[in-house]
Amino acid sequence: VWMITGDKQETAENIARSCKLTGSETHLTRVVKAKNLKNCLELMEKAANEVNEYTRVTLAIDGESLVYALDESIKTLFKNVGKKCETVVCCRCDPLQKARVVGMMKEGSTDVTLAIGDGANDVSMIQEAHVGVGIWGKEGTQAARNADYAIRQFSHLPRLVAVHGRYNMVRNALLIQYSFYKNIVVFGAHFWFGIFNLFSGQTYFDDWVMALFNEAMTSMGPLAMAFFEKDLTEKLIMKYPQVYKELRSGLYLTRKTFGLWLLSAFYHGLVIFFCIFLIPDILNNTGQTTDMWLLSTISVICGVNVVVLRGALSTRHYVPHTHAAYWFSMTFDVFGILFIESQLYWTFPRYYKIMDETFVAGYFWFILLFVIIVCLAPDVTAMYLARQIAPDNWQIIQEIGHQGSDGKEYDDIAAMNEKLEDSKSEKSKSEEKSETPQKEEDKLKHKHGMKLTRSSSSSSNDKKKQNSVS
């Protein structure tokens, strides 16, 4: 953690102690009042030796020394020393130096920097960092207006990062991987179908089916994921902040997770296409064999249901909107759209009455159930075994929450904080009320005192006049 401020050295160090950035067990090394480049290099080498000697070190550097420390000849040493330190306190820094320090940490590193400030002098630092957070407070709104996120108090930062940042990561990771998955499952059938038609360009699905697959048939599930998905409740996240560490390492969006989604999509696509395309010719109720459009319609219905149910298996937080999205996708989005299309002869002549033939075919319902079981059984088994044999930390905490201790300690702490804030506000109001009459009394005393002095001076003058007359 780097604390970059414009305050003087003593004030900055006291603030670092009060914020618990440094403690009694932390060794404090200073690089201050460097007169030239050589002197700054000597101080920085001394700090580097102390960093290697002590386990917990805090580096304090002032703006005068920072001018030389940001020089190209010392910058690398300064950066390495700062990385090894537990905390770095930069004091007496101007806005340009704040931005240069953040830029130095970004150079040649894959780490994500976050800058937080509350004043206009922090704008350059906030804009230089990967993520900028501005505090909307007493020093104006310039920092909040130029930041990526704005908060009212510094104490809101843990909730912004740990809760909202986690939910954003969970939702984006699931949405991206699920979007690739669902398109590979259904439209991968075009590749397998090309093997049988010698890649002549003949499409396996109807044009409107391909157009409405992402826009209508499977659009509700990803929207529900993007809006409502959670892996842990807010209370559990605040009660166990350690879960944030594994999230930083890419818990939900890694090469492994993406590869597993692609492997699942490849397997589901194979099952859906070949279980339907390679079945023997079936006679319909008129005694004729079924055509390609009937097979492609069964493939679409099986594919959409498998995709929707796979999304439901990956969902960790269910609300009424999530239930409605998945059930709507499996009913009206599939059967309703395809049934309406099959009834419009003048618009879709080759698809006319296809759904009527599909519904009366007994093997359709058997294939639908068979494909869903064959596709999702391995996924359900793998999820169950992974959770029972090698669960992640968030899964263990999720079980703790289900057992009843859903952040009760956090509720007690929040209630105590609210009581403290209420008592502070009441105390400040009572002090303001007590100060008002005191001020008025002082004013009255001051006025009466002036009158008394004037009256005493006038009486003394009258006595002098009487003495002179006598």
Quick structural summary:
Helices cover 67% and strands 7% of the residues. The chain has 470 residues and is of the alpha/beta class.
Description:
This protein has helices at 9-18, 37-53, 63-69, 72-84, 95-106, 123-128, 142-145, 157-196, 207-217, 220-228, 234-239, 243-248, 255-277, 292-314, 320-330, 332-343, 354-360, 362-389, 393-402, 408-469, and strands at residues 2-4, 27-31, 57-62, 87-91, 114-117, 131-135, 149-151. It is α/β, with parallel strands linked by helices and 470 residues long. The protein has a four-stranded parallel sheet with strand order 1-4-3-2, with helices on both faces. The longest helix has 62 residues, at 408-469. The radius of gyration is 36 Å and the shape is elongated. Mean pLDDT is 82; it is low at 444-470.
